[in-house]
Amino acid sequence: MLGNEEGELRPVPECYTASPLPEFMSAFLLALALAAAPFSQPPVDSLATLRGRITDGTTAAPIIPAAVTIAGTRLGTVTDADGRFVLERLTPGAVTVRVARIGYTTMTRSVLLRGGVTDTLDISLAPATTSLTAVRIDARTTEREQFTLSPNPGLFAVRGETLKRVPVIGEPDVLRVVQLMPGVVATNDFNAGYNVRGGESDQNLVLLDGYPIYNPFHLAGLFGTFIDETVGEFELMPGGFPARYGSRLSSVLSVRPKAEERSGVHGAVSASVLASTLSLGGTVRGRTSWNVAGRRTYADRFVDLISDRSLPYWFSDVQAHVRHQLANGGTLSLTAYTGEDVLAGLLDGLGDSTQAGGGDLRFDWGNTLVGAAWEQPVQHKLGGDSARVMQRLSSTGFGTGLNLGNGSLTLSNTLRETRAWGEATRWRGRHETLLGYEWSTYRVRYDADAPSAGDDQLFSLRQNPSAGVLYVDHTVRGRTITARAGVRAETVTGTGWTGFSPRLSLKWFATEDLAFTLAGGRTTQWTPALRNEQAPVRIFDFWLTSDRETPVAQAWQTIGGVERWFGGSRFVRVETYLKRYGRLPVSNLFNDPAVRGDEFIVTTGTSYGVDVLLRQLESGRLSGWLAYSYGVSARNGPDGRFAPVQDRRHNLNVVTSFRPAGDWSYGVRLGVGTGTPYTDVVGQIVRRRYDPVTNTFSPNNREVTLEPIGGVRNGARYPLFQRLDISVTRTSTGRRTWAPYLSLINAYNASNVFTYVFSYTDNPPTRTTISQFPLIPTAGLKVSW
Amino acid sequence: MVARRDRSHRTRALIRAWAVATPLAALVSLGACELATENVAPPAPQIVVHAVLNPDEFEQVILVESSLTGRVTIDSTLRFDPLDPVRSAGGEPIAGADVRVFAEGDTVGVRANESSSVSLGYGAGRYSLDQLRLPILPGRRYRLRVQTPDGRVVTGETKVPSAEPGWVRGDGRIAQTVALNRTRDTLQLTWPAVPDARTYAVRVDTPYGPWFLFSDSTRFSLAGSLRNFFSSGLPSVWFPGFEQVASVLAVDQNFYDYNRSGNDPFSGSGLISSVQGGLGLFGSTLNLLRRRVRVTDDLRFPLDGVWAGVTLSGRDVNYDLWVETQDTPRSSVSGLVRAPEVQVGQSLLGTIQGDQVRLVTLLGLSSIDTASYFTGQLVGDTIRGTYDERFQTGGARVLVRVPGSAP
Hints:
The complex is a heterodimer of chains A (785) and B (407).
Chain A: H1 20-33, E1 48-56, E2 67-70, E3 76-78, E4 84-90, E5 93-100, E6 107-113, E7 118-120, E8 123-125, H2 132-136, H3 142-149, E9 156-159, H4 160-165, H5 174-178, E10 184-185, E11 195-196, E12 204-208, E13 211-212, E14 217-218, E15 223-224, E16 231-237, E17 251-257, E18 264-272, E19 275-284, E20 288-297, H6 299-306, E21 313-325, E22 331-346, H7 347-350, E23 360-379, E24 386-404, E25 409-428, E26 431-449, E27 459-463, E28 466-477, E29 481-492, E30 497-511, E31 514-525, E32 529-530, E33 542-543, E34 553-565, E35 570-587, E36 600-616, E37 622-637, E38 640-642, E39 650-658, E40 664-673, E41 677-678, E42 681-687, E43 705-710, E44 716-717, E45 721-730, E46 737-745, E47 753-759, E48 766-771, E49 776-784
Parallel strand pairs in A: 1-7, 1-8, 12-17
Antiparallel strand pairs in A: 1-4, 2-3, 2-5, 5-6, 9-16, 10-11, 12-13, 14-15, 16-17, 18-19, 18-49, 19-20, 20-21, 21-22, 22-23, 23-24, 24-25, 25-26, 26-27, 26-28, 28-29, 29-30, 30-31, 31-34, 32-33, 34-35, 35-36, 36-37, 37-38, 37-39, 39-40, 40-45, 41-44, 42-43, 45-46, 46-49, 47-48
Chain B: E1 2-6, H1 11-30, E2 34-39, E3 47-53, E4 59-66, E5 92-93, E6 98-103, E7 110-111, E8 113-114, E9 126-130, E10 141-147, E11 153-159, E12 176-181, E13 186-190, E14 199-204, E15 211-215, E16 219-223, E17 243-251, H2 253-260, E18 275-276, E19 279-296, E20 305-310, E21 316-325, E22 331-338, E23 345-353, E24 356-362, E25 370-379, E26 382-387, E27 395-401
Parallel strand pairs in B: 3-19, 12-19
Antiparallel strand pairs in B: 3-4, 4-5, 4-9, 6-7, 6-10, 8-9, 10-11, 11-18, 13-16, 14-15, 14-17, 17-19, 20-21, 20-27, 21-22, 22-23, 23-24, 24-25, 25-26, 26-27
């Protein structure tokens, strides 16, 4: 092991001396060419290489990711799946190596680099304990490293601990926190779905450990599917994402499972007003970590207790993650998830018992996911200084089924995606080249069957396309420029479509703490959801795939931004964006089920806006963020130009967590937003059905059916939305950690409009306002060990 | 690869309805509440027209009304009256309109008559013309023009589905009677394909509203276990003791589009109207097949069988009773009240819970048209009870099981 325990900072020679502008152009052109051409620099054989491994000082487990940087420069990298790192093409001489990872004491080492020699530096980081506060002053967090090393615009990462501090109803929820990020709109309280920078709610790619999940919702969209105890961290890319991400137009939400690194078996039990969760995790022989969690609601029991209504509904989740460290430095991991929502009961208990035909009702929907991953560092391979390969195989699916009267009528929709995803990454000097592929086969089923009516199925739709993608991303990290260019070559069978989606991202560092970003590219999507965006609640989407009739959706986006850091834990970011939807299939309300291909109509549209983020990271007593977004969206439908329902022009969210000394911590969330559009109802029509037996338009003993007549599409707007949530948690540590919490949702009982119900049978006509969340107190307890 | 079969054109709307209804029910349980009700300004009214030409019918009816705007109060307590169909079914009629139907090549048209009682407010908005003034024939095209007293004009056009050679007006109204044991039988319906039909509508009248499905095929089977998935509670379609009409119609594009679509509750759009200048339907249909189905069932439960009683006037009367759907704690009952020597009479619905029996005799087929209401107690082979005096039949009754008899 080289270096001293505490090194001294010394000037580090510049690796090259080109002026910023030529460097900018060089990086840009080189990135575009995907070539690893070297910048002006000393001969290779005079350069130095530093490699090593970063481990937990207590458990010896690899720390992933840890940021390894050369102090005083922007040279750096992050550890791979085995905690290893390689820094190459370094100028020989004395340098200070800094290793940082949140939760650990930042370590600096002085190293004397020798030309033409590969030096090794292994470091064990000590978990930050009682001295954490003092250490935090110098801690360089993951966000700061991302700022330094990644050209991705708009990236917003949240760790599992932060997730727990945001006031929520019932359960800490990834999707509820995503809704509070800049550029993200939640159309109302009842919907865990989210719209990113003007995009529709089905345009968000949601990944659990790299595997897609199609409908990550529970309880009519009130909750997300991710169990908070299993979430290590998650990050939202609201646009400008690299070529390795595709198949959705608007955003990528990547949820990484928590990897238990402590020996023995640890766990947590939590109970809220709606659900209970049990999670367990541990390590086996220091090489295998595992984590499993399960959750089930008792909302049905809760509703029974507080009202005379019945809610024969529950949902459950089970999630597991196993990760095994191979002897050769690689890792194998397995991720599994299954979740189910069930509404079940006796038909006559739900309807009019005097006319019920008897039997059961069962309405269920849910996701299943099984995925396996292999990641392997490849030393001195692929023509670079180091390399890594990754291969993922997964099967993910969503299904819903409605079974009425013990099979009298069944309706089902399933989508299953079987996916192979692999990539190889090569690092060579400041160049990082990533080459990957995706191959997905889709199996879509949409059936309706009433065995007693007719000899055939009432309705049957089958789609079995495959999608193949090749992509390449090339990143160049210069002294003041970080550039990444990439392209995806995509094809979808059965569509006759093949396309190329270029991606580009540039970041120019005016100073070490100030950077400007420019990004853009094309995104595509071939799994449109058959849904009604006008509906204020979103239980789930019916997924279909593109085919000859339904084109692959396409959009172009451009992002420009600036980010300024103030110290190591506070920054402000301002980004503007412009999206143009060239082909956007949306659900056709007038579609004829007997006609294939009219399920969607193809529209166009634009979205643009500005997002402002001021964030204080979790390094002190006060942390949180302020997110303000201004956005304008418009779509061009058959009936003209209109604002989509996610067109909330101004949106402000303030999220703070205050942890004074002691056991108590407090969370506050304030949300204020201008109203979203809705279609005004300008009358009602009595729907009359012809009775051929009596030659009349009789209501046939059914009540008179009234249907609303819509006015100008989304021509009206709901009033201002505002909501203040407060939570308090007391954490008592000991052999077991007890953490009871109390939350007040909508603390001052603001009257937020959910929807209007019109009646034009009254004279004068009336409009009744249905509210969003009223004041809701919730409480829960978590015990962990 | 895409493969698709599609015989029902209403099922996707049904699953969408479920997808909306379920979360809304959950939200109601979890805290959504009404904040306030306020008055809004009445919007501009639109003309709404409903007309379906049927060559088998002597009289063609056109309903003209206004969309509901809140300018008048709608009386929702009225019972449906076929001669006053707009007002009695929640509408706001438009009286005094000039309603004309044009045959092909006709530029003058035949004016439809409004009810002579319109001056009294009865029958307003109902316009009719008969076959003597304008024959409605299969395969012919017709136009509709409605001009309201304030000068607004609505137009539409339809082509009546063609008929097979030898078609005779009125034959389509004739129903052949068939028997159907609900446990053992399936009603098989086949009909000829006819030109100009967009599709075929299969319909069964039930006590809880019609069961109705479009089918592109020319045959359809209806099992005895069929449930009405368009009605709350998913009731049975076939009820022992009832005579129910099953019919098949050839329909035109307008009829099909209007009945398969509907305005979305949130956007207020989705309905496919076939008239210009307003909303509604101007379509046509042709009766292809009609069956009067006499429904029975096996005897499976202790209540099932023939029960004999005597009316207050001393007339013998039989009650054919079946447990229609067994459930806990209450089972549904259906049946027939008839004179002993005949097989037709009045249908009844009821319930049995423990030994308590409730029987509602119906005026017709509809469950909401109550003729009499009987409550009694089942003791062995006897039901003792009384008729509710508020209805047309009153007094105490004793019903005794007729040994060895089956309905």
